[in-house]
Amino acid sequence: MAKEEVFIGSIDQGTTSTRFIIYDKHAQAIGSHQVEFTQFCPQAGWVEHDPMEILESVKTCITKAVDKATADGFNVDNGLKAIGITNQRETTVVWSKSTGVALYNAIVWMDNRTTSICRKLEKELSGGKSHFVESCGLPISTYFSALKLLWLLENVDAVKAAVEKGDALFGTIDSWLIWNLTGGIDNGIHVTDVSNASRTMLMNLKTLDWDESTLKTLKIPKAILPKIVSNAEVIGHIGKEWVIPGIPISGCLGDQHAAMLGQSCRKGEAKSTYGTGAFILLNTGEEVIPSKHGLLTTLAFKLGKDAPANYALEGSIAIAGAAVQWLRDSLGIIRSASEIEELASQVESTGGVYFVPAFNGLFAPWWRDDARGVCIGITRFTNKSHIARAVLESMCFQVKDVLDSMHKDAGEKGETKNEKGQFLLRVDGGATVNNTLMQIQADLLGSPVVRPADIETTALGAAYAAGLAVGVWTDEEIFANGERMKKDTTFNPVLDEELRKKKVASWCKAVERTFDLADLSL
Fold first, then answer.
1. Residues of 157-168 as b/e, b for ≥16 C-beta within 10 angstroms?
2. Neighbour-count burial of 35, counting CB atoms closer than 10 A to its CB (0-12 exposed, 13-18 middle, 19+ buried)
């Protein structure tokens, strides 16, 4: 006899891999599959993906996950009610409406080829780096999609020609996937959701629509942009050429917004996701809070066409888990990412070594694209364990920098604290399995860190949004996380307060050493 009949699927398209997870009514995963794909670095600072490879990875993951769940006795064919999508944000694709072919590789969020475009705009526009902050909450930065789109319009002949012919479509990865999932050249639906749109620099945070003034200033044609929808509504149905035809796509969020929903973050609550980068978001409710301390003002989520929008303060860190990959792939200090915990645990401290992974510059709260990585404090005493521990500490120091800015921007009233008056940071993402990392994070923050039993909250958040739209779950069920938190693991700080302050001061000194290094001779 087949098992439970209500399922929600979730496509989780990240920076290095794609997953498809199938959840039951109790939000428990009953089948999944993951595929890694290629990251191209054609020159220093450039990072690209092949959009067709990403599309194939989605097809593979859906097929394999459905096969696995079916083999385990779950009647997915009849029980799958909807799917949600979550994706790496800002990564930019332009493709042909008539052929369905991408006109250039996807330019990834961490790519910094648009530095010169940024500098030019900062000089030309009256508001400088902050010219668009009032409308979109974001500074002019290589990070955001609008700059990547400008580069494509200026440098890729195929893109220019397609725009002139009215054959070009622009989107972040969610738009690319939805268009292909719903038919592609055969009437595929060209949309994005409010959370992904909020990361382009082109959406007005208050109207939740494309900002006409920004489009005019940047000379971006509105005709190539997708329609903006909420995070939880039926967008369209999956096309007949896919293994799950006819299933509604009813949830879509950028990965960090999905993680926030997966963590059930209400107003005043924050989460940090540790992946390739690290991303800290604080839900500010229905209030748009401008940052005065180097953070981004962005959308958290809008759970339905008529639902109110929740906003957030965000701090984005470009290099977190990617530094561990660098230790493994470029230096060979470890053979697998999981080895770093054991290596770092062989020493009680970094021995005075501080590592700042400003590989492509620094994001929040510094916003220095002229920064480059440094490792300082090295002596003859230093060994690879000290380096490994310094890499872990670098992730935690960067999160602390962001949270310090958040506390200043949000103020006492903007944060929720527990009965002991402590602000709890909820954490998720693959790196959080590392207990040493989590303890270092609690120690450097001087406050508790809470890790959920299921650390893959990004996929769960997309499933929640999709299930909410088709009536599988209610708002109350999604945000009633009391029972779930009983299974969470809490890391409490044990580091001496005086030592913590000294370490933070040393870290700040190390960060300053990274500035103005982009033009070092090769």
1. eebeebbeeeeb
2. middle
Would you give the end-to-end CA distance of the chain in angstroms?
A: 66
Give CA angle at 290 (284, 292), nearest 5°: 120
> What's phi and psi for 314, nearest 5 deg?
-130, 140
Residue 191: its H or E element: strand 191-193
**pLDDT, tens digit, for every residue of 417-456?**
777 888 889 999 888 999 999 999 999 999 999 998 888 8
Residues recorded for the chain: 522
β-pair partners for 92: 107, 172
The Cβ of residue 422 has, within 10 Å, a number of other Cβ atoms equal to: 14
Quote the CA–CA distance of 73 and 68 in Å, as a whole number.
Answer: 9
Q: How many Cα atoms within 13 Å fall on the side-chain side of residue 77?
A: 6
Q: Enumerate residues 6+ apart whose C-beta is below 8 A from 67.
A: none
pLDDT in tens, 396-423: 999 999 999 998 998 866 777 777 888 8
Which helix (H) or strand (E) element contains residue 228? Answer: strand 227-229
**Torsion region of 490: left, alpha or beta (phi above 0 gives left; psi -120 to 50 gives alpha):** beta
Q: Reduced to 3 DSSP states, what percent helix, strand and coil does the chain have, rounded to the nearest 5?
A: 35, 25, 40
